[in-house]
Amino acid sequence: MKKVQAKKSRPNRRPADLNRLLFTRFMLIVAAFILWIGGIGVRLVHLQVNQHSFLLAKARAQSIYNLRSKQLRGTIYDRNLAVLAMSIEVNTLFVNPSEIDDVPRAATDIAKAAHIDGKQLLARLTEAKSQNKSYLPIAKKIDKDNYDRINKVLFDPDLKKGDQPKYAGVHWDEDQTRSYPYGSLGAPTIGISNDEDEGVAGIEQSQNKVLEGEIINRLLQRDRMGRIYDEKILADAKLPENVVLTIDKSVQIVTERALAEGVANAQARAGMAVVMDPTNGEILALANFPTFDPTNIKSGDTSNHLVQSVYSPGSVFKLVTYSAALEKKLFKPTDMIDAGNGTIEVGGHKFTDSHHIGLVNYAEALAHSSNVCAIKTGMRVGKSDFYSMVQKMGFGQRTGIELPAETKGIVRDPDKWNGDSLASMSIGYEIGVTPLQIATAFATIANDGIKNQPHIIKEIRDSDGITISVTEPNQSQVVSTQTARDLRVMLRQVVLRGTGRRAQLDGYSSAGKTGTAWKFDPKTKRVERSKYMSTFVGFAPVENPKFVIVVVMDEPQTGARDGGTVSAPVFKDIAQTLLTAMNVPHDLTPSSSNSASADVPEVNGSDTPNVKGPPEEKVNKNGEPKPQKRSKENKKSDEKPNADKLTAMALDPKALKNASTIWKTKPKT
Q: Which end of the chain has a smaller Cβ tally under 10 Å, C or N?
């Protein structure tokens, strides 16, 4: 049998040793825990103290976003509340560089979606990330179609993100863009705004403080999914206001259409037209041609030449000459004046008429636009009184219309005049005016001598449509009622028997004045005799004018090129259309007011008159036009009495004993 060896039993430890062992192990655990806690504490101290600013900025960049957005810009209306300019909501694509890990890849993807240059975007993203920026705009003014397209292209199915597009670090911001429902209609007057929604031309610029919406600062907080869970507006913002213009959309359309056709027919470089209500100074239309598309400005002229450009008005300025003389009671329309042989010399300067008219009355002298008669009249008025009337009519000073960059024109002080300056200014030279200043002067005569300050803003309304302010123009009595009535009688004859016959209307009486002047070259400081500025200014009906209309053609190339040939027909087109459309009662029998008489040539300056215009015109060795033969039929028509007798008598019964008196001396050829 095997012997079983007995196991040795371990000796029992003493209680003291066992307690010491347990204590040691416990202390080791405590020490490790203390070290762990200490390490965490040190780390916490480091994060909370040393890296506090850095971590706080990083946390805010990821979860808190300060959104700055403008309220929608105010609306511009016409007088009948048709919308001419308004803002609509669009979007701006931006990135938060701190949320992007792979910058090169993101730049490539975003550039492809937004149709922009990838290299430039990479440089911008890299710089923005190095500067810890949280907002970098990528593409502005994105419409709905492109918004949807970009969201589709920038889509990461693995990304959990609360907002569009589903791409890390890319977000949408609210934005606005300007919309012009009628396109280029009245563009130089309405103006434009830039990408920052600030007006830079027209009413958009002059009324920028009224129209602009203040910036709203909103503090947005996002969760880890990018969803906004809290929004706080930091300060209240003033609501934008709306501008109601005196412009009538329909009148503007009619005016621009007629002007464009007139420019095309005259093959002119450009054209301008004003339609004004003489009773209150309201501007119903301001037309420039060519114009521009306010929604697609690449380059080009956005100026409003009706208030920003000056030109020599020519014979339309004779209104001032005769106004000053009538105020001094130097003549009556039926008084006689001798044009002599059609030439006059003042200060060593020879001035000529386009055709010899001899002894005529003042009304006939104005109708035939005689330079000699106007100069003689101006010399009788005298330098001081002539200059005073120029100022009273508003020349040499801004009209105050609510449009930017208005020029005051060019009027020299009398002490700087030359020996022939008074003579030159009497016929519209040595002076620079704007078409609006001319319109204001003629509106004064149409309104019985009362000048109304021209204005284009009718009223300002708040965002709820409540009227805040209404424009009340300044008024002043420039000439007497009698002077104004005498001038209206004389201006009526310009249309009936003088240089403005193409401005005759069907069923309505009209009055006005033609003007043709050479253009001034600022480089050579001389006039260019091959380039004309041709004007017609008129109003209708004569007894109770509804409109004053100015038409200016810049460098017309066809026909006679004078104001009566190229500008008067545009006046007729505008006036006839508007009076008919507004159902203004006829003051003449329809189809009887257009007389088939020959045009009266108009002189445009001191040497070469504007009859046919170079190169077609035939002139003598002195540069003056050769006399033109007139048919027997036309001679007979000159001998007819005034076809608008009733109108003339109603204006001033004492001014004319009968309508035939004014034409007892027929024009001479």
A: N
